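Researcher: Let's do a round of design. I'm pasting the structure tokens now; please hold your answer until I've finished.
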């Protein structure tokens, strides 16, 4: 809890590992932590017999034993996962070939350009945040016949273009963003039910309306490819790699800075999360904003997450400090990009 802010406000900072939460479940947790009424009664004190007692932390050998036992006693899971992965690969290749023949789009895999924040990460993080009106996003969406998510991606694309131009470089290739997509209701299981959709950001275009229209077309193709991969593909792959082995491999990958030595996979993570549609209160105080910050992935030093909060859109940007030391400049460019699209939407409606 952080006190002493302007206007006598108080901030609550919550940190939860992404393995235990995704955007949708995070919004659900907020709805349970906060109240829907300003003077809602507090919860009753817990009884002594209801005191929660955690399980013992398992040893490394216990994890290995349990993992091997599960593999031995549930061979059907491995067979099912192998079949699903094989089918996903076939569908992905077929969809990619079809798209390339249809509109000449190049594959997105390992095709991202190098930027200042593309590469190995350090342990340092910088954050910035801001707030916009949800009505502005909806006005742009309605004026140009797109979706709110398209507007979010277009605003981010325009902001990143402005940011790179400010720093004297602009890659010839379009940036590639990986956007988390919820798999709830589509076969996903567990506490973190997401997959990822790769979207090209038209940072090579200057006009914001052209950017928005290009993204609208791009997201259609990206969704086709994501559907071909399947909602459970990532979970199926995990069946073949024990978590302990994967963890050690990732530590080795990061310690050797291998992300600096191979073609970039993606440039930025952009996530659009539906938040609470009703006002929330905490001990009688109105929750004025909910700024979300997602995780960084090795090789990708910037994450932009937006969360709808009643009539607002709260934006959180987190980045590797050494790669993006002036992260507040990114949120400033996001605000400028949105204002430019709002003006264009007003002109489209009046014309």
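Researcher: That's everything. Go ahead.
Model: Designed sequence:
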């Amino acid at each position: 809890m952080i006190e002493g802010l302007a206007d006598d406000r108080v901030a609550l900072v919550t940190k939860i590992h992404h393995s235990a939460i995704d955007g949708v479940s995070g919004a659900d947790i907020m709805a349970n932590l906060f109240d829907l009424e300003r003077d809602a009664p507090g919860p009753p004190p817990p009884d002594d017999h209801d005191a929660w007692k955690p399980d013992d932390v398992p040893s490394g050998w216990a994890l290995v034993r349990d993992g091997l036992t599960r593999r031995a006693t549930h061979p059907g899971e491995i067979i099912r996962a192998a079949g699903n992965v094989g089918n996903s690969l076939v569908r992905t290749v077929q969809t990619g070939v079809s798209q390339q023949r249809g509109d000449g789009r190049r594959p997105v895999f390992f095709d991202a350009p190098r930027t200042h924040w593309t590469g190995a990460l350090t342990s340092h993080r910088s954050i910035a945040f801001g707030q916009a009106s949800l009505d502005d996003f909806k006005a742009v969406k309605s004026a140009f016949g797109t979706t709110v998510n398209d507007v979010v991606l277009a605003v981010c694309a325009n902001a990143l273009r402005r940011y790179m131009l400010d720093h004297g470089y602009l890659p010839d290739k379009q940036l590639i963003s990986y956007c988390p997509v919820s798999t709830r209701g589509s076969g996903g299981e567990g506490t973190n039910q997401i997959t990822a959709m790769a979207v090209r950001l038209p940072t090579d275009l200057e006009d914001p309306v052209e950017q928005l229209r290009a993204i609208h077309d791009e997201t259609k193709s990206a969704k086709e490819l994501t559907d071909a991969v399947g909602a459970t593909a990532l979970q199926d792959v995990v069946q073949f790699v024990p978590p302990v082995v994967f963890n050690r491999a990732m530590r080795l990958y990061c310690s050797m800075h291998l992300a600096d030595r191979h073609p970039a996979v993606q440039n930025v993570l952009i996530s659009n999360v539906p938040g609470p549609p009703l006002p929330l209160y905490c001990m009688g105080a109105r929750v004025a904003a909910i700024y979300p910050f997602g995780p960084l992935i090795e090789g990708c030093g910037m994450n932009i997450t937006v969360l709808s909060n009643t009539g607002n859109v709260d934006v959180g940007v987190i980045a590797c400090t050494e790669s993006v030391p002036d992260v507040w400049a990114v949120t400033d460019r996001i605000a400028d990009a949105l204002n430019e699209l709002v003006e264009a939407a007003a002109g489209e409606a009046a014309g």
